[in-house]
Structures are given as C-alpha cells and as structure tokens.
Amino acid sequence: MDKQDRYVVGITGASGAIYGVRLVQALLEAGHFVHLLISDAGWRVLKEELDWEVTKRQVAIEHAFGEQIHNIQYHPIQDIGASIASGSFRVKGMIIMPCSMGTLSAIAQGASDNLMARAADVMMKEDRPLIIVPRETPLHAIHLENMLKLSRMGVRMIPAMPAFYYRPQTLDDIINFLVGKVLDSLRIEHQLFTRWGETNA
Length: 201
Known about the structure:
Blueprint lengths: L5 E6 L5 H13 L3 E6 L1 H11 L6 H9 L6 E4 L17 E7 L1 H8 L6 H11 L4 E5 L6 H12 L3 E2 L13 H15 L16
Parallel strand pairs: 1-2, 1-4, 2-3, 4-5, 5-6
Helix pairs in contact: 1-7, 4-5, 4-6
C-alpha cells in the first residue's frame, strides 16, 4: 500500500464514540489504512455507548471492523515509541473524533505525554493535516481559547454539529453527515450525505 494512503484516527473519552468508529469504517471502505488510537477514557465510552467488550481490546477491534482488520493497526495509548510518534513515518493526516477537552488542551499546550497528543504534535510540526472534532457543550473560555490557538496553527476544527437541510431520517444519517464533513476536509470522495443543491436519488 502507498505510504501516503495512511491515516491516524484517535478516539477519546468524549461522548460520541460512534463518530470515530464510523470514520474508521469509511476510511477502510475508501481503501485507506488506519492507525487507530483509543484513550483509556475512550475505551470506557465505547463500552458505555456501543457495548464494546473492552477487556480484550484487540478482539473488540477485530469484531468491530471484521474483514478489514488487516488494514488497521491499533496502538496502545502509552506506546510512545510507536511508528506514528515519529515525523519520519509518513501519513496523510490525523483525525481525533470525538476529541475531549482534556485531549484538546494537551495538544494546545504541547504536552505530548501519551501517543494521542504526541501523534497530533507530529502532524503540526510536519505540517500535515490535523482535524479535531470537539464534542462538548456548553463551552467555556478555556475551551474556546484552546480551539482558537490550534486553529491559528492550521488545525481544522469540525465541531460535532449536525445539519438538517438534507432532512435526516435516522441517527445514522446524522452520524454520516459529520463523518462526511471530515472526509470532505481530507478531499476523500464519499456518498455519505446529500449535498445542498443535490436531490435524493
């Protein structure tokens, strides 16, 4: 596989783990390789929201992504020596979806004390795409200041804000819309939602 065909996906402890899972599925369906990161709190949310069996993490990932598992490499969050911790390891970009305010703060302050924050730091220092999908409400000034700081550094902020102009009928429609917006930002073709000005087939 082309080395430029690799993406890093991080799932943190913010509510909305399904967003990250669906993003991984969409990247795999598009033929890309995924380096997957899940924080300890992210594993807790996967259990609470999606009923993942988190005591056997590799097995849980294999169960979730089935036949595409050979296109995923899971990295434990404390493996600071992993390939994606180095700028010499080439990937096309990183998406943290959903992103907790704690992870966002660590990235904004350059506190690379785990692989999630370190991999994000690598994206910024190597001038590679970094997309953050913050999932919190309401937001206070520190949250907003951290987002602004990262935005000024070129990090793309795509808040978990669904649209309704396309008349979503199911929860999957809303999830797919946000995943589609992330893919749009990465210039990856998809058919996850109906665009403004287009009609449903």
